Amino acid sequence: MMAIVGAVMLLITLVALGGYFLYRSLPSTAAGVSANASEAVAAPVDSDEMGALYIRVVGESSTVFVRVPGGDVLLDQELVQGNSVHYRENAQGLEVAIGDPAAVEVYVNGDHQDISDRDAGHSFTLNP
Fold first, then answer.
1. Terminus-to-terminus CA distance in the chain, angstroms?
2. Which of 16, 73, 75, 93 is positioned for an S-S bond with 67, CB 3.0–4.6 A?
3. DSSP letters spanning 42-96
């Protein structure tokens, strides 16, 4: 009898978790997307604050990988719309890989670099 109750409780828990994660994976409403996009546009960053590398996600999301050449990984994660990262000068340079180039804006030393037409997983190196 206890085994049946335990199995039913486990089933209920799995269904509840499945529903929760399904709900979390659904895209947000159109109003939410446009609000996030307008917030990203409404908060421009001064080129002096961008540093050597500035990446802002303007699409839905993109993976971003940044590391010191042959050394420490500084960032390896998926960023969503409105998120941005920036790195000041680095004496060793930076290696960068962008999962979805069309979803990001990239600035190197304050200058916009249009990589939107590049293939997925586009990578480049910033020399010191």
1. 69
2. 73
3. HS---HHHHBSEEEEE-SSEEEEEEE-TTS-EEEEEEEETT-EEEE---TT-EEE
Query: How many CB atoms are located within 10 Å of the residue 19 CB?
Result: 10
pLDDT at 36: 35
* Residues 6+ away with beta carbon under 8 Å from 100: 59, 61, 62, 63, 120
pLDDT digits (tens, 9 = 90+) for 36-56: 333 334 355 565 667 889 999
Pair 106, 55: CB distance under 8 Å: yes
Q: What is the pLDDT of residue 1?
A: 83
Q: 113 to each of 55, 101, 106, 119, how far by Cα in Å?
A: 10, 11, 5, 15
107, β-bridge pairs: 54, 112
Place of tokens 């960023």: 79
Model pTM score: 0.62
Please report, as a single letter, which amino acid is at residue 121.
Answer: G
Please report where in the chains the tokens 């304050």 appear, as a residue: 110
